[in-house]
Amino acid sequence: MGGQYTLDDLKNKHIVFYDGSCGLCHGSVQWLLKVDKNKQLYYATQQGDHFTALTKMPQQLDAIIYYRKGSVHDAAEALAMICLDLGGGWRFFYGLWKVLPRRFSRFLYYLIAKRRYGIFGEATSCKLPSIEERARMLS
């Protein structure tokens, strides 16, 4: 699946790394595919080959990781940076994150993250991406 990219190709991309087994994560990727009007976001599971090669970090399956042109953001900060890059009205959420105490935003993030399997379940199947979407899905 996905476009064939070298690590050099990916170093200047915006990549959302998610837990490939998480139902909430899969739903979030489907939602992002719809709202990313500029089609700038790429997607890969943390369990895939690109994660460690690009981030140089171990998997953090309880957090979304956002690789943004060489910098790495996690959890609530990752969500805020994604909203910033989506632009438009989504920048409001980035601004909100900037004024909230970091400790509070991380607390809220992990409050949901710890319960995500109980609430949203495990991903047992995936929607087949369109040809256009497939180019943004990394292996």
Report on the structure:
The protein has a 4-stranded mixed β-sheet with strand order 2-1-3-4, sandwiched between helices. It is built from 8 helices and 4 strands; from the N terminus they run H-E-H-E-H-E-E-H-H-H-H-H. The mean pLDDT is 88. It is globular, with a radius of gyration of 14 Å. The termini are close together. The protein is of the alpha+beta class and 139 residues long.
Name a few traits of the molecule:
single chain, about 15% strand, about 45% helix, four-stranded mixed β-sheet, alpha+beta, about 140 residues
Shape call: globular
The residue-averaged pLDDT reads: 88
Total of DSSP H or I helical runs spanning 4+ residues: 8
Taking all Cα atoms into account, the compactness measure Rg is 14 Å
Question: What is this entry, summarized?
Answer:
By secondary structure, the protein is α+β, with helices and mostly antiparallel strands. It has helices at residues 7-10, 23-35, 49-55, 75-86, 91-99, 102-113, 116-120, 131-134; strands at 14-18, 41-45, 65-68, 71-74.
Topology (SSEs and partners):
Layout: H1 7-10, E1 14-18, H2 23-35, E2 41-45, H3 49-55, E3 65-68, E4 71-74, H4 75-86, H5 91-99, H6 102-113, H7 116-120, H8 131-134
Helix pairs in contact: 4-5
